[in-house]
Amino acid sequence: MNAVLVQDAGVVTVESFPDPEPGPGEVLVELKAAALNRRDLLVRSPPSPVYDFPKPFVAGHDGAGVRRDTGEEVVLYPGIKWGESDEAPGTDFRFIGGPLNGTFAELIAIPEECVFRKPARLSFEEAAALPVAGLTAYRALFPVGGLVAGETVLVLGAGSGVSTFAIELAAQAGARVLVTSSSDEKIERVKALGADGGVLYTEEGWAERVRELNGGHGVDLVLDSVGSTWPESLRALRRAGRLVVFGGTGGAEVTLDVRYLYLNWLSILGTTLGSPRQFGAFLETVQAGDWQPVIDSVRPLAQAEAAYEKLTAGHFGKLVLSIGA
Fold it and tell me: What distance separates the 2 farthest-apart alpha carbons in the chain?
């Protein structure tokens, strides 16, 4: 089969690779589409030993395709051995696409419990965009963030894969959505996804501007993947509001006013991805909706390097690879 391989020194190649052989409890899936995530950059050029895996391995965490044994159209959960608790993965949890072989290939052998029926209303390209970004957004909003209809959520960084899913899912649930962005153009674009408005994070005092947009009140929930923005995110919250964190693109360390935190009864909650059971619930939510995943562009597998470059340079929505005919 043809596959995208992560090599030493951050090199990515597209070349022939042995077809996988399903082991006990595994099924073979003929992939039709796959999507990129920020983690693909981290496992390609590891910033820490956490992301440094034996190479080469097949890249890619997100994928959709057809089961070879049944012909069923499926979407893949992006890891194995999450564990019994939905609260957090066990110590044996591992991602496909690093360290395990992933979805940037024509075939993948994967445990049957990681294979889910594709939402019928979505194309393969749209379904392939769902797993990492969509599940991360779903878990951050609902199982962890506790968002309910009538509340207001602030989503930082309008335009990323996770943020576009978060906007659409929150709007579907009957919540009011505000965003931050680096440009007025992106704020206007996400209004079409269900956001009410937003503020420029490039301007000082954006937390107060969020409060102004919310009638002078803090929001109920903030989704933050930046990290360095925690002080502003906390000040955008109402008393007893919740800050859910699932990334640190702005840096690994932050300084907080501890008194402001506890004197306003605020909560900071961390999350990544979600369990297979939560993935199933997320897919049911997707099927019940009428929105489409936001796809920036679709490229053939042979142009994976261009997709990596676009992921680094900036994009709006998800970057997808089309596989096969």
Answer: 60
Q: Tell me the pTM.
A: 0.96
Residue whose token pair is 């207001």: 152
Strand order in the sheet with 152-155: 197-200, 176-181, 152-155, 219-224, 237-245, 267-270
Cis peptide preceding 111, ω within 30 of 0: no
Residue 21 tokens, joined:
């052989």
Q: What is the pLDDT of residues 1-40, one digit of tens each?
A: 999 999 998 999 999 999 999 999 999 999 999 999 999 9
Quick: pLDDT tens for 105-131.
999 999 999 999 999 999 999 999 999
Tell me if the bond preceding 99 is cis, omega within 30° of 0: yes
Find tokens 């030993």 and name the residue. 49
In the chain, helix, strand, coil percent, each to 5? 30, 30, 40
What distance in Å separates the CA atoms of residue 174 and residue 180, rounded to the nearest whole number?
20
What's the sign of the alpha-carbon dihedral 65, 67, 70, 75? negative
Closest CA to 192 of 225, 164, 215: 164
Residues 148, 169: Cα–Cα separation, whole Å: 11
Q: How many whole angstroms separate alpha carbon 272 and alpha carbon 252?
A: 15
Which residues, in sequence order, are CB contacts of 126 under 8 Å at separation 6+? 292, 293, 295
